[in-house]
Amino acid sequence: MNLRLKKEISLLPDSPGVYLMKDIDEKIIYVGKAKNLKKRVSQYFLRPQNGKVAAMVFHVDHFDTIMTPSEKEALILEMNLIKKHYPRYNILLKDNSHYPYIALRKNTDPILKIARNTKDKNFIYFGPYPNASSAYQVIDLLNKIFPLRKCKVMPSVPCLYYHLGQCLAPCINKISDEDYLKLVNKIERFLKGYDDDIKKEITKKMLDASANLNYEMAKDYKEMLDAIEHVTAKQIVESKDKVARDAFAFASRDGYLGMAVMVFRRGLLLGKEFYALEQFDDPLEQMVDLIAQYYDHHDLPKEIVLRDREVANSLRDLMEVNILVPQRGEKMQIIEMVQLNASHGLDEHFLTARLNDDNRFLLEQLGQLLSIKTPYRIELFDNAHLQGSSPVGAMVCYINGEPVKKMYRKFHLEEQHGGDDAASMEEVVFRRYRRLVDEKLPLPDLIIVDGGIIQINAAKKALMRIEANINIAGLYKNEHHQTRGLMDQNGEVHPIDIRSPLFFLLMRMQDEVHRYAITFHRSTRSKSLFVSIFDGIDGLGKHRQETLRKNYPSLDDLRNASITELTQLLPEKVASALFKKIHDKN
Predict the structure, then answer these.
(1) Residue 5: is it exposed, middle or buried by C-beta count within 10 angstroms (0-12/13-18/19+)?
(2) Which of 78-92, 319-333, 481-495, 516-530 is predicted least confidently?
(3) pLDDT band (50, 70, 90) for residue 99
(4) For residues 466 and 517, what is the distance between their CA atoms, to the nearest angstrom?
(5) Residue-wise DSSP of 510-566
(6) Residue 19, helix vs strand vs coil
(7) Which of 497, 548, 500 is closest to 527 using CA atoms?
(8) Closest CA to 102 of 134, 131, 132, 125
């Protein structure tokens, strides 16, 4: 322990607060909270440590503390600092988007879709579902059972779904508001768990088809009934009170912590999520952190049930929600079921996961390969254009080997740089880091560009202009344009075994930045084409343009629209002007 640490420990207060462990380069490597700062922080240095905690302590050069009025404020501050600094030793859940909901449009003809928020008042929302596949499975079933509109763009002739009896064909039929309301009410009852009426109706159709010797149709109805049973099967524990509830349980094994969460809405178990993470520091404190992080991305339910009282007490200080630790009855059965899933999930993780792909170890390998300090934060760049038009740049950020999507960035580039990859790279790197330098924000440990020495030199030139010192590498490709390793900023090539975990980590990063750039470019190009079409048409403002884009995602969809279809979305005069302009361009 150095003299600075000894002095800082001697000055620690006996009060609640947050501590920030820093390395010799002033980087925050761990953020923690404490009921008693003096007692908690001194334990790291005055007691022998093992594993990952020992590794963290080894890298601590000094620390800062922030005192708070209570442990509650310490917990809130800790979570905010972790989200701001992404310290390498804080265990973080993956940065996923919000849970999906099934959204049912209640105005005009009902349409089902997946939604990530519940703000549009024109829809009724059901969920949240733990993952998109669960939600799509339910939507597929609903589209088979109910005669919903399936087409995103209204066709001029009825499609196959109409002939199968799975659509009312609003494209050719005038459907009354009363009929639509009945359909919406049926779907709403079904999604709330009242499926007996639907099953009786389908059973009758199956028997009628069989009696009429239409065995193929009877088989279709039988498969529909089986699908209903599969999707809406009664759970081991049925929640009778219909309360929106999440249940958490944890398991630990060989330095890993498994967290399972089951999501109940309207008394139905919609599914589960499971996370396997490295165990670090006190497991009870880590459980509190993980649950708090979980609700950074997901809406709070009415009730949370847990097994551990100490974890529950800490969360009560943080969240405005009813938190229970049941001892018996239905909720205890729920906790036992979640606990079983946590233990089984962790066992399965050890049996099937590539635990050799320890991201921290792979990043250390990457640092050794390039002769730089371990790059815990990596930012990757890629550019996209079509024959020089609509040029864009994209940056993705990985911290501790995991993507942090809220830190991704998009760049519209100068048109004159469209066909010049080096100039585009210089522009995007300059714009990205000029802002970080000006605002004195943390810089990454490594920049990776998609290309060789030309791209590397372009990035170096940009960094020299803003006097920023960041390591740079390029993804090296062979004569067949296949990635085979890295090129450092001096032009030296470092081959990587294509079967190694490090190679696969780099490929995942490369695929992600390429996907992000291409998606952004397609969106930009599509909008620019629409703008040229919409420009100069009186009465076609931003709101109506957005409505058209939603109903006609591509320019070809818009060109195939009839004047009758367009007048359903626009005033007749505006629709006529748009139709004329579209077809004059052909």
Answers:
(1) middle
(2) 516-530
(3) low
(4) 24
(5) HHHHHHHHHHHHHHHHHHHHHHHHHTT-TT--HHHHHHHHHH--SHHHHHT--HHHH
(6) strand
(7) 548
(8) 125
Dihedral sign computed on CA atoms, order 556, 561, 567, 573: positive
Question: Does the pLDDT of residue 155 top 70, yes or no?
Answer: no
Q: What letter represents residue 425's amino acid?
A: M
Question: Would you call 86 exposed, middle or buried from its count of C-beta atoms within 10 A (0-12, 13-18, 19+)?
Answer: buried
Confidence of residue 219 (pLDDT cuts 50, 70, 90): confident
Structure tokens at 67: 């005192």
pLDDT (mean) for 198-224: 81
CA distance 296 to 95: 10
Spatial separation of the C-alpha atoms in residues 58 and 74, rounded to whole Å: 25
pTM of the model: 0.60
Q: Which residues make Cβ contacts (< 8 Å) with residue 515, sequence separation at least 6? A: none
pLDDT (mean) for 484-500: 88
Name the token pair of 143.
């589209």
DSSP H or E run through 433: helix 421-438
Residue 363 CB partners (closer than 8 Å, separation 6+):
374, 375, 376, 400, 401
Domains delineated in the chain: 3-85 (3.40.1440.10), 101-231 (no CATH), 245-352 (3.30.420.10), 361-507 (3.30.420.340), 536-585 (no CATH)
DSSP 3-state of 455:
helix
